[in-house]
Amino acid sequence: MNVTDALISRFTCRAFKPEPLKKKMILDILEAATRAPSWANTQPWEIFVAGGKVLENIREAFIKNFHKDVPRAPENPVPEKWPPDLKKRSEELRAERLKILGLKGNDPAALRANFEQNARFFRAPAVIYLCLDRSLTPWSMFDLGLLAQSIMLEAREYGLDSAPAVMLVAYPEIIRAELGIPENLSIVFGIALGHADSQSPLNKYRTPRRPLREVIRFQGF
Ligand SMILES: Cc1cc2nc3c(=O)[nH]c(=O)nc-3n(C[C@H](O)[C@H](O)[C@H](O)COP(=O)(O)O)c2cc1C
User: Fold this and answer.
1) Would you say the CB of residue 164 lies under 6 angstroms from ligand 1?
2) CATH top-level class for 3-78+119-206?
3) Residue of the nearest CA to atom 9 in ligand 1?
4) Which of 62, 166, 169, 205 has most ligand 1 atoms within 8 Å of its beta carbon, as the pocket-test mutant?
């Protein structure tokens, strides 16, 4: 698969087939993905991968918290306010997803159903957790983003799909306890990995992008 095909075929998969993944395949993906650049080659990432019974324990505890309405508390704060045009795009995404689920946006049950899929990690057989030492700055967060996309693109090489989601780290204390993640590491982000369930309507939608003429300013060409 060439890079353009990987870029274009990656999407946020919100329904996985439960079939387990081989550890070797995940290792190979991570070996290539950790070629990602980082500030002065500091390679700040610490990676934890959960599958099998360990992931089921985390998933079960997440679903329990979700049903008890335990407030979600990712370690990296979620923005309270977005600039209006960004907010509009995220609302459009939410509306499209609810439409696919056959739900109405003003229906509280709709939002719950949407969040429940997240709390189930979209039934993925593996989740990769990306962590950083708490002392690091946004530059290392930038490095972690480069790694995250590299993982998702390399996953395409193996025919795998992925879901990057803050909801996967909504209850960090559950993940920390189950995986024995030390306190000095912040559990920043999660990527669910697996084979997409191509029958699921959730996987049929492809998100739009802003027109390039609005995003890019060339000068001197
Ligand atoms: C930092 C970040 C957090 C995200 N969190 C969630 C999430 O919690 N739940 C979810 O369903 N998707 C989540 N997504 C996926 C985005 O909604 C998705 O990337 C975006 O809508 C573009 O769609 P695409 O990935 O299919 O191209 C997240 C993506 C990123 C990069």
Assistant:
1) yes
2) alpha beta
3) 165
4) 166
Nearest residue to 173 via CA among 78, 79, 72, 80: 72
Q: How far is the CA of 11 from the centre of ligand 1 (A)?
A: 9
Q: What is the pLDDT of residue 141?
A: 98
pLDDT tens digits along 136-173: 999 999 999 999 999 999 999 999 999 999 999 999 99
**pLDDT per position as a tens digit, 112-133:** 877 888 889 999 999 999 999 9
76: Cβ contacts below 8 Å, ≥ 6 apart = 141, 166, 186, 188, 189
Q: What does the pLDDT look like over 37-72, one tens digit per residue?
A: 999 999 999 999 999 999 999 999 999 999 999 999
Evaluate the CA torsion angle 89, 90, 94, 97 in order and state its sign. Answer: positive
Closest-lying ligand 1 atom to the alpha carbon of residue 14: 11
Q: In ligand 1, which atom is closest to the CA atom of 11?
A: 26
